[in-house]
Amino acid sequence: MSHPSIVDGWFREINDKSFPGQAFSLRVDKLLYQFKSEFQDILVFHNDVYGNVLVLDGIIQCTEKDEFAYQEMITHIPLYLHSNPKKVLVIGGGDGGVIREVLKHDCVESVTLVEIDETVIQLSKKYLPNMSCGFTNEKLTIKLVDGFQFLKDLRNQDKFDVIITDSSDPEGPAEAFFQRQYFQLLKNALSNDNGIIISQTSENIWLNVNYLQRLTETAREVFTNVKYCSTMVPSYTSGQLGLLVCTMNDQIDLTEPTRFPTTSEQSELRYYNKDIHSASFVLPKWVENDLN
Ligand code: SAM
Fold first, then answer.
1. Kind and range of the H or E element at 76?
2. Where is the catalytic site (predicted)?
3. In which residue ranges of the chain is CATH 2.30.140.10 found?
């Protein structure tokens, strides 16, 4: 087996458009799987430090070592902001990490996963067992369709309290998720003005702050209350990834959780707590005016 992203035994994440002049590299200690699905190029390999690594279209999606930093923040920020989240929608998320975190909230009655590529779900069951552990939960419904189309076809009675967009990056099947029409569809899919959405922004402040500023402005054309927060994930480019949190309720202070993890919920979390919720919205001075 060989793969164009693997040279001399090292996987190299190179993208001259999004991260010019730099590359992130992980040693491939064992190549586990490679396949071109109908939607994307898929690679799974093992690295002795990071564990199993899932790569889509040449971009790292998750590693077993640090995935919790992303999954916990993209899930618990919106869920602890909502006073009583019962119906949750996850768009993308075929690795199962976000589903695992959503199911830690007993108040959630149902969670719908909309994933375009069934191969990712199957691979996660095989190579990322700690992330895919929620796939058999009876609260979960899986729809194997395009997330954009799913939202377009959504009926009025099927709306959600929280919507998490856990997609891959804009170059590929997730391109539509970074545009105004998508934010409009998300707004329409919320059960009421207290609904919360969160989306991964794909870029980070070091490499593409202008893009993040445009994305934040696009979200603000649709939602009245929008904030950017961030999480530290060493295997993502430059180690920092932003999340965009939006609601139509201006009374909600997005930087403060509405509910706090109980002692038993907190014991299952390794990254999120109420302090890191607030701290994640505090940005370095050179970007705070641009984004928040
Ligand atoms: N945590 C990751 C990150 O930020 O890099 C994202 C992980 S998850 C694996 C991303 C998922 O989004 C993939 O499984 C991909 O198949 C799915 N996806 C991409 N475009 C999609 C679309 N249009 N509709 C539904 N799912 C989509």
1. helix 67-81
2. 166
3. 6-63
Residues 18-71: tens digit of each pLDDT: 788 999 999 999 999 999 999 999 999 999 999 999 999 999 999 999 999 999
Q: How far is the CA of 62 from the centre of ligand 1 (A)?
A: 11
Predicted ipTM > 0.95: yes
Cβ neighbours of residue 89 closer than 8 Å, sequence gap 6 or more: 111, 112, 114, 160, 162, 163, 164, 189
State the burial class of residue 36 (Cβ atoms within 10 Å of its Cβ: 0-12, 13-18, 19+).
Answer: exposed
In words, the CATH class of domain 6-63 is mainly beta
Question: Which residue among 100, 116, 132 has the greatest number of ligand 1 atoms within 8 angstroms of its CB, and so is best to mutate?
Answer: 116
Q: Is 174 in the pocket of ligand 1 (CB under 6 A)?
A: yes
How remote is the CA of residue 113 from the centroid of ligand 1, in Å?
11
* Whether this model's pTM surpasses 0.95: yes
Cβ proximity of 256 and 272 under 8 Å = no
Residues labelled as active-site residues = 166
**C-alpha of residue 115 to centroid of ligand 1, in Å:** 7
pLDDT of residue 17: 80
Instruction: Judge if the beta carbon of residue 147 lies within 6 A of ligand 1.
Output: yes
Task: Indicate whether residue 242 lines ligand 1 (CB < 6 A).
Answer: no
What class does CATH assign to 67-291? alpha beta
